[in-house]
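Example record

One chain of 1091 residues, shown exactly as stored in the release files.
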Amino acid sequence: MTASTDTKSKSKSKSNSNSNSNNISNSTRVLSYAPTDLTHAADYRIAQESPSLLHDTPLPLKPHTPQVLNLELARPATLPRSFGPDPSRLSFTLTAQSPSRLCIEIENAEKTPWRVPDSIVPRYPATSTGEPLDLQYSAYWTDRDSFSPEIRRASTGERLFGGQGMGLTMKDQFLELSTRVGPEQGGGETHLFGLGENVGRFRRQLGTVTTLWARDCPCNEGDNLYGSHPFYLEVLPSGKAHGVLLMSSNGMDILLSPNGDTLTYRVIGGSIELYILTGPTPQSVVQQYTELIGRPCMPPFWSLGMGQCRWGYDTLDKVKTVVAEYQKHNLPLESIWIDIDYMDEYKCFTIDEDRFPLKEFAAFVKELRAQDQHLVMILDPGIKLQYQSGLYEPYDEGVANNLFIKRRIKEGEEFSDGKKHSAGDLVDFVGKVWPGKTTFPDWFHPEAQSYWIKYISEWYRKVPFSGLWIDMNENASFHDGDCSHIESSEDRPVQLSDFSAAEPRDDENEESETVMVQPQHQQQPQHEHAKSTTTKTGNGLDDFNDEKVHVQSNRVHHLQPKDVIAMEERIHDHDIQSRAHGTASVAQSSAQVAKPNQAGMVLAQEKPPVVYRDPNHPPYRINNNSEYADLEYRTVSADAIHHGGVLEYDAHNLSGHMEGIATYSALRELEPSKKPFVLSRSTFVGSGQYVVKWLGDNWSRYSDMRDSIAGLLNFQLFGISMVGADVGGFGDTASEELLIRWHQLGAFYPFVRNHNCIINPPQEPYTSTALSAVTRAYLDVRYRLLPFWYTLFYRSHHDGQMVCSPLWILSPSDKSLLKIDDQFLVGTCVLVSPALEPEQLTVKARFPPGRWYDLHSGFLEVFVQADHTSRIFEIEAPLSKIPVHVRGGHILPRASTRSQSMFLTTTEARKAPLEVVVALDELGRARGEYYHDDDSFRALDGTLVKMRARPGVLTLTSTRATECSGEDQEDQEESVPFSQPPGVRSSFVSVVMIWGVGLDKAVEGLVKRARAGSSSKVDAHLVRVSIVRRPETGTATLQHQRDLRAVPRDEVKVTWSAETAQLQIEMKTAGGLEVRGDEALEVDWADALMA
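Predicted structure tokens for this chain:
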């Protein structure tokens, strides 16, 4: 949790001249940003003992059988000696794991490097079809005397990965691998998506660096943020897509060349483990990716509702007041969130009983649950260090059982507590977070899970929360590296006065000569708060090409509270840093322990492990914090040691992921029948199986609101489907207009929560009349759509489909769509086009082909011919409205509000009967589905209702959800099972709304409000509603052998409007018309429509 200040003063870069993060040793080099110039790279050729290969002949891949090529060094890298030697031999292994998945592994043949353990990130096997693999890719080696693998699509020959003449470097602490991207013939644009976590445009911008090294920071454009996801999806000019994952937890830079033809990985350790996924549709790429890394978790239904949080609810009375104000203003509130305010001096698993009296707190939670509302509490990983035992049990037990991350004592190190240690001894690594000096749980320790479960369980018994919010889990620290040397007299919890003013010190306004090391031609991301200052050349740091290097200070922006604390820490620590930290150390990589099994035991290695010369200062500096900061910048030192000898250097990016697994497992054990809810800031490949995600400490700015769209789309690619940004922004002061626009947009985030910082004004939706009215209206829209949302999450969990999608998923070959990241789709049919600028009253929105109905009114508003590309139309967007459209040809399940004005909880929406919205396409067809269950973890009664409309007829049929996979063929008739399967739930239908009935053939363009044709008319008496009983034996379709039972006309109300071209069928039965699992519902208006 970080926060901004409201001060208008500026500060210079986070790293000042006293900062440890830029005391760069002479042995360290910064490689120039020149991915098009790869002449420095080493090169490898195929060894003589490997099979002979022909240039134009694919490698002989056999399903599930590794194809190994032995490589020998052909040309050493032209890098400084500090980078170490090139391995003389490499092993190159290809494994065809499925028709659409190819694995490539490249390793030093003489040493064992670090590899992400399968026990932490399983590589799941592809679904077996029982048929021989018909590979969708071919692998080639184009030049036996050079490193030149190429992977191509078998059907078209399109290049998916690789290329000739780029070399390969595989040093112990510097791996460099490049691939050609973009059109092979040149002249076109490169459309690359993914690679994160950072803030910026959805499509990767040319000439930029994406750095992966998890860290605590506010959301500034271009900076490496909280998670690490080395996965990208590329859309080629043909519209076909493929994906590439580099399974690595080591720090890295990923460089996209200025002309967009080359992507280069620069990784500071480990090995190469690549997965190439052939698609060919963008949706299928994401499905193949989540099949590999694990499907996204199924969220509890309640978590789809509105959440309210603020750092600053520091008493129970304040929390109660917020809940009461929501009720007073008739605003839906599903969950109240409490930040670190509830803790006793910010210690984990504690409650300050002066401000949160325990009995009253527990009674309040009980009252919340009685109102179908929920409590979510924050939990940080840092465990407060104590100077005597018996004061804080979580610390005592962690020390007693060696459950904390360790470090080695350095030569000459002194301890203020008088303890005697020898160089090389292992002691607990000490950071500094909210409570003061802290230790961090070692998730690699086999007992860490039971430790975490124990204290979460004890905490839960005091206050039965519904979910947990894990923050600061990068791991974050306000101190760079270990801070054991801090005197106990100076060890205290953070206080508001530490950062309330956030004014820069006088000496911070002076220029720094070592702020950032930046090659001449590297493009540096510009932040909204940034102002360029001076540029200097030289400072004794030459890059590997001996070019001059620029040293700039161009990162001045508002400070967040933690920035102020961390800056003060570095200034205070400068004079004693040399006493606390020794010189560079030599450390074995994590491969020595190497690949721990499920029990955490060490497995023997056949080859010696890789040895890192200096984990804290590798020869290649990744662009950490956009200023080449040290790896330990505001986090754990890279030479810290985990159980079994795993180095932080290798495992740093796994910290948040592993805490997510531990927390998810703890909640599973607490309430086995319920789906856990864990919101995490730091994530890694596969985290979506366990946690949901918010986008971190954003700012109250229009640009951040826009960037949130790219953020939520990126995490759909990463396999974390439930994601959202802090509505209104976390830092700065939000205007009323910005809050209105953001609450409109937030109603269409997969995860919606209002949250802001203690030093900024409150921004709850009831703080102004206009904001309250708009928020109420759009939360009503959201809650009515909850059946649709829940169905999307089911598809994501079951099949890996995206919950929100970029527009180009509808037409990937449409180049104009590939640039859009200020609009998005919920599912594939609800188009959200927000106003993202101040005083904006219209939106220039792009619409793919088809009919587009206004979600609010059901009117046909836009029509684009099917054989045309997308078009831009200017849509009215007054402050009270966000343009949202439904694509023709789709059916939405909504919760019916017929019996009440609006829903205030998700429970009310879940229990409400169904409203079926049918948006007809030009051919009078539509399709959709509706998933519902008992909201339990196993959901044995999960039921999927298939909804299909053909001209004049709508049918709804149910089946067990586990029996359905993916979408049916477009025109395939429903097959009716013998009888109601056990556990299939009844559905209750209250209203059927059919949009676009009797429309004349529309002229392409902005229709605004299309009415039915002048000759069209619906005779309400001829509309038939029937229950289709399924036959007791055999199988039949709804077209043939069946038993129809007409619903009596006096139980149905039919309304037709030529003005709106809408037909409404309302079931008069209280609670809706029941459709059992062995029945189907049929609505027939074919004979009633007279054209």
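Notes: The mean pLDDT is 86.
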